[in-house]
Design brief:
This is Phosphoglycolate phosphatase. GO terms for molecular function: sugar-phosphatase activity. It holds the Pfam family HAD_2. InterPro entries: HAD-like_sf, HAD-like_SPP, HAD-SF_hydro_IA, HAD_2, HAD_sf, PGP-like_dom2. By secondary structure, the chain is α/β, with parallel strands linked by helices. The chain has two domains: 182 residues, HAD superfamily/HAD-like (Rossmann fold); 66 residues. The chain is built from nine helices and eight strands. The strands form two sheets. A six-stranded parallel sheet has the order 3-2-1-4-5-6, with helices on both faces. Strands 7-8 form a two-stranded antiparallel ribbon. Helix 1 crosses helix 4 and helix 4 packs parallel to helix 6. The chain is globular, with a radius of gyration of 18 Å.
């Protein structure tokens, strides 16, 4: 039985990757270097310290303080968030649906709490029952510590918990913590996830419950394929059925529901 949904933040609920990419690019260019798309992609889901150390290593920076550079980048991100947070399609409606269904909700993110507060303010009070941030003192993802801390705060074990993650680092963290994992993966999917969807736009409470219902029989297979076509959270009467990560059904088909 589903008891809680634990959401990642960046790239899952909010479209913050371009914001972080712009801030990191600005830092690199301030030192007369150019950033690569490959490097930016490799930072996805990483803790701020790990990400900045990777940047320093990439460019062989000596004499620059990692924490000072983290602060520099986060100031840029904070300025962007102060102008508004860009929620990904389906995110806010899914949060509302999960709350309405009586499930507990947690936010599990590598982002520092100072920045997360902007998201919490837009989400509204009572949206999350627990919030675990990157500067809370836990070992960062892919370590399971952030998800274990969130479940502890909720007073739950992993059996009734489903995690929603977009990055391989985050999926690994949730998987090792014992959660069923839904990988929101428009481009790249993790083998550790129980199932995947291209966007939260196509996910509703019934799909989250389906992940938990089938978790004992799942190993990198698509739980959605054994249930009614997706679409509890869609508009315009369209439902979608994503296909398996092993590629046996390439892409995913849209089925028009007659309502």
């Amino acid at each position: 039985m589903a008891e809680a949904v634990l959401f990642d933040l960046d790239g899952t609920l909010i479209d913050s990757e371009p914001v972080w990419a712009a801030a990191n690019t600005a830092l690199v260019r301030s030192r007369r270097a150019e950033v690569t798309d490959e490097l930016l992609r490799s930072l996805s889901g990483l803790d701020a310290t790990v990400a900045m150390r990777r940047i320093h290593q990439q460019y062989g920076w000596v004499g620059y303080d990692v924490q000072a550079d983290i602060d520099w980048v986060q100031r840029r991100v904070r300025e962007s968030y102060a102008r508004g947070v860009h929620w990904l399609p389906g995110a806010r409606s899914l949060l509302a649906s999960v709350r309405a269904a009586g499930l507990k909700v947690a936010l599990v993110t590598s982002t520092y709490r100072e920045l997360v507060e902007y998201v919490l303010a837009e989400a509204g009070p009572g949206t999350f029952d627990a919030v675990v941030c990157g500067d809370d003192g836990h070992r960062p993802k892919p370590d399971p510590a952030p998800y274990l801390a969130a479940m502890d705060a909720l007073g739950l074990g992993p059996v009734g918990c489903v995690a929603v993650e977009d990055s391989a680092v985050g999926v690994a963290s949730a998987h090792v913590a014992g959660c069923a994992v839904l990988n929101i993966a428009p481009m790249m999917r993790s083998d550790l996830a129980h199932t995947w969807a291209p966007s939260l736009f196509y996910v509703g409470v019934s799909e989250l419950r389906a992940v938990l219902h089938d978790r004992a029989a799942l190993h990198r297979v698509d739980a959605f394929a054994d249930h009614a076509a997706l679409g509890a959270n869609t508009e315009h009467g369209e439902r979608i059925r994503p296909h398996r990560p092993d590629g046996r059904a390439a892409g995913f088909g849209v089925v028009h529901a007659h309502v």
